[in-house]
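Hi C.,

You asked whether I'd gotten around to modeling the 356-residue construct. I have! Everything is below, sequence then structure, no commentary in between.
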Amino acid sequence: MDPTKIASFDHASELKAFDEMKTGVKGLVDAGISKIPRIFHHSSVELANSKPLPSDLQHLKTIPTIDLGGRVFEDMIKRKNAIEGIKDAAGKWGFFQVVNHGVSLVLLEKMKDGVRGFHQQSPEVRKEFYSRDFNRKFTYLSNFDLYTAPAANWRDTFYCYMAPDPPKPQDLPEICRDVMMEYSKQVVNLGEFLFELLSEALGLKPNHLKDMDCLKGLRMLCHYFPPCLEPDLTFGTSQHSDSSFLTILLPDQIEGLQVRREGYWFDVPHVPGALIINIGDLLQLITNDKFISLEHRVLANRATRARVSVACFFTTHVKPNPRVYGPIRELVSEDNPPKYRDQPLETSLLTAMKKD
């Protein structure tokens, strides 16, 4: 018998058994496992620690932090400084943190408490929401790509599209319903402000990106990273870039997010009260690489308590969209020709649209 087929069959069986538990990674931890299952083992190449930072890059400590002045700048100089900071960060890192962003710190804590509350409910309650039917208004599961990825991540998630068609209250779990609705409204308000600053950073009118429907859709993913017994064997989230226009991430105090720049991984430190902003593939595309979408990952949780985060993605591919996206005309010229082809949104990923 072919041993590769045996290995493949075993892997498939483990995946199926894990998925049919319908309680995710949290269920494994609650069961008192002493080792993480093989389906979570990543390759040694992926897990290898970053090589030391060379001397010419020592000045790159981490992503910058930008003060948004409560979204009401006292004078134009402070606004201009914020725009310049965002322009520099979006063009070099694709990531930055924002403080004084106008979202209540009390609401941030309530949102994180809502995520913990849902994931720490009894298994019987969580099982009612567990599904791989991505057409549902609210979905709870572990690993979207469980059956297609080479290895699973040590993370559970619930998610919901909050715009353009917000869910009805009865579609959401009572334990986090109100805070999800309120937080998503605040994120949209902040997103509108950020897109204004990003537009101006590109030398465009404040409403330019909004008029391109960059704010049209909002997808909320609420992650739960249980403590991991063998964190050197797996990840919380594998290396990837976001396919959105823009992502607003609410982290908690437990660090683990890393950004890859020039082949090196940089830790993103905890900044009290800050939100983490990152450029997505679609914004890199329409800005013709003036803003960049960098790959990032989350290390497996080494703490003794669970880590949570809330990622809100501004994207329009909630439903089939006939709109064609490509580099903004005002940003291209004979000296700076378009680097991507114009195509409908559903096919407008960087890899598909890069010009030959």
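If it helps when you're writing up: Residues 177-201 form the longest helix (25 residues).

Thanks,
B.
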